[in-house]
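Continuing from the previous page of notes. For each protein in this section, the sequence appears first, followed by its structure tokens. Read the first protein now.
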Amino acid sequence: METLKARKDPLPAIVGTGLLGLVTVVFLVSGRPIGWWQAAAVVIVLTTVYGLFRWSQGHTTVNLCNDKITVSSPFGSKEVRGGSVTAVREMPNGRSPNHLLLTDDGRKVHVPSSEVERGHSALFDWLAAHAPQAELDKRSIRTRRLVHERRSSATETTGEDSSEIG
């Protein structure tokens, strides 16, 4: 079984956003403009939601065990067998995409491939081995090609297989 853990520590982003929210609320309270308490409440709610989002991203794992992929987050986990994956859709996520696995029973499983170490290369290796029947969209085909090219160029430069790229 291969476990892919979150790539980044969420704590710096959470602390930075929390400090920005705190400073904003202090300025609102000290100046007391009209509607200051509503604005302060909005800032507190948005800061909390963002902090929870970043925290959950930092605690997400993807487990690849034979023909089974399990995506776990603090809010639950989803499991899919390779034989039931019918399609793969790429979802833009800033600079690096995530992927959506569609199954034959209509389920959709979000795989945060850009947010875990070796996410793209491990996902496409798993798909090739356990879900070759899955139809990839144009963007997923492009990402698979880029991962393969990076792996090939790393092998040529170092002379060894570099499965760390992804």
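Done with the first. The second protein uses the same format. Note its length before scrolling.
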Amino acid sequence: MDYLVTVMHPQHSERTVTGEELPAAYAALKGTEANVSWGEEGSDFLILQVADEYCVITGAFDGGYYYLQTSDDDELVPVLMGDVDAEVPKGAIVPRELGLEVLLRVDDLPALRTDYMWVEAG
């Protein structure tokens, strides 16, 4: 299982890491503006916007886009998505550690989709 780690700031870089390398690569993202993705555009994929204390997990499944949410709080709040200011539901701002947990479970996507609450991204 391979993941693409992209750092936007302080210096742009991209690298592919294996599942074995992912925990260390994810931990090293502290103090950066970064995302981690799995899968291919046009099929099922995940992309995580990773901040120091939280992450936003977006999944593409069955032709739609969904946020993983830990609550049903749909108040829109500002976040940085890559290098773009965006708004996401407050419930989609999840603990940073959950991002790593989800990425490490992509080999069982059906369980991942039922074990967590996914809400259509508007």
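What the second structure shows: The two ends are 29 Å apart (CA to CA). Residues 96-103 form the longest helix (8 residues). We return to this in next week's lecture.
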